[in-house]
Amino acid sequence: MTAVRHGHDTSAPSRANGVAAAVTDLTKVYGDGDTRVLALDRVTMAFREGEFTAIMGPSGCGKSTLMHCAAGLDTFDSGSVRIGTTELGKLTDRQLTQLRRDRIGFIFQAFNLLPTLTALENITLPMDIAGRKPDRRWLERVVAMVGLADRLNHRPAQLSGGQQQRVAVARALASRPAIVFGDEPTGNLDSRAGAEVLGFLRDSVRELGQTVVMVTHDPVAAGYADRVVFLADGRQVDEMTGPTPQRVMDRMKALDTQATGVHARTR
Known about the structure:
Blueprint: E1 19-30, E2 37-48, E3 52-56, H1 63-70, E4 78-83, E5 86-87, H2 93-103, E6 104-108, H3 119-130, H4 136-145, H5 161-174, E7 179-183, H6 191-208, E8 212-215, H7 219-222, E9 227-232, E10 235-241, H8 245-266
Parallel strand pairs: 3-8, 3-9, 6-7, 7-8
Antiparallel strand pairs: 1-2, 1-4, 4-5, 9-10
Helix pairs in contact: 3-5, 4-5, 5-6
C-alpha cells in the first residue's frame, strides 16, 4: 500500500478535469525599505482535482508562503486566490474562516492534536466545532485507509509519532474537503513512518479522489506526487510530471547551483 508508485495506476478512479484551487498573478511582500522581501512574484498556478502536487524549491523560495496564501492562512498583496470558484480576496474574515473549516483540510509538521481527546475525537473535532455530523461511511473508509481502526480510543500520548500524524491525515480527510494542504507533513517522522503517511496521502488521491498539495524539501516525499512544481526567488521556474526521487534531486541541485551563481554575481 505504501510502495512508491511508478507509472500510471490503471485501477485509479477516473479523474475530474476541474480545478480545485488556483492562484493568479499572486504577489506577496514582507517588510519595506531595506528589509523588503518579495516572497511571491506574480505566481500563477492551478491545482487540478484528483491530483497530488508537491511544491519544492531552495530555502526561502516562497513555497510555504504560496501554500499559506492559497489555503487562506495568509493575506497577499495582489493577484487572486480561488478555491473552486470562490475568490478568497472577496471574503470577510468570518466567511474565510468558514471556508477553511468546511472546504480545506490541513496537515502540518506538528501534529496539532489535542492531548485530552481520543484519536477519533481529534479526527472529528473540526466537524464537531462546526456542528456537523460526519458521514459515517466516509469516516470508516478514511480510518481504514490510514490503519487506525484499532487505535480510535487511544489518546495522542499513547500513539507513536507516525500514528499521531495518521490521525492528523484522517482529520484532514474526514470532512471530504475540496483540497488538502500539507506543510512538510513528514518533517517530524522517521523514514518508515513518513513513507506510510505519504502512501496514505497518495492513496487518498487514487482511491478517494482527493486533491492534495504538499510543500516539501524531500525528493523522496516528492516522488509520491503526480506533479512537482519548483519555485525559486518567489517564481515558478519548472514543473515535472511523473517524478522520481532521483529526477527531483537532480533538478533541486540544478536550482541550488543557479541560486548560488546568481548570489555570487550580485555581491
